[in-house]
TrEMBL record:
Keyword annotations of the record: Ribonucleoprotein, Ribosomal protein, RNA-binding, rRNA-binding
Keyword Lyase: no
HAMAP family documented for this protein: Ribosomal_uL18_B (MF_01337_B)
Name the UniProt record assigns to this protein: Large ribosomal subunit protein uL18
Function: This is one of the proteins that bind and probably mediate the attachment of the 5S RNA into the large ribosomal subunit, where it forms part of the central protuberance.
Organism: Sphingomonas caseinilyticus
Subunit structure, as described in the record: Part of the 50S ribosomal subunit; part of the 5S rRNA/L5/L18/L25 subcomplex. Contacts the 5S and 23S rRNAs.
Gene: rplR
NCBIfam families hit by this protein: L18_bact (TIGR00060)
GO cellular component, one term: ribosome
Pfam families recorded: Ribosomal_L18p
Superkingdom assignment: Bacteria
PANTHER family to which the protein is assigned, alphabetical: 39S RIBOSOMAL PROTEIN L18, MITOCHONDRIAL, LARGE RIBOSOMAL SUBUNIT PROTEIN UL18M
Database matches in SUPFAM superfamilies: Translational machinery components
Protein family per UniProt: Belongs to the universal ribosomal protein uL18 family.
Length: 117
């Protein structure tokens, strides 16, 4: 087996810990690139994405680009869509990304929007 990168090792460690405490809740997964940020609520039992939001969506309020304000707008939009879909509690999956900056801004905005995690 090939040696995993630090990012992949962190991602695997985070997902393993999530499975232990998920208790049937959907997973809020975040992906961050240089230009964009993506978030989706996934039902792992059914293997389906329930709702998603990203900086590529037309109705995400705010400018495009890699800023905390834009990430917060994505978090708020995701929380609104999740509430419409009947999801109120999730487990937060930061993947291999550290919990600061844009990832933290998205999480805080999703909490303000009504998601519990």
């Amino acid at each position: 087996m090939a040696k995993l990168s630090l990012f992949d090792r962190r991602k695997r460690r985070v997902r393993t810990a999530l499975r232990a405490r998920a208790a049937g809740k959907p997973r809020l997964s975040v992906h961050r690139s240089g230009k964009h940020i993506y978030a989706q609520v996934i039902d792992d039992a059914a293997g389906k994405t329930l709702v998603s939001a990203s900086t590529l969506d037309k109705d995400v309020k705010g400018k495009t680009g890699a800023t905390r304000e834009v990430a917060a707008a994505v978090g708020k939009t995701l929380a609104e869509r999740a509430k419409k879909a009947g999801v109120s509690a999730v487990v937060f999956d930061r993947g291999g990304f550290l919990f600061h900056g844009r990832v933290k801004a998205l999480a805080d905005a999703a909490r303000e929007g009504g998601l519990e995690f």
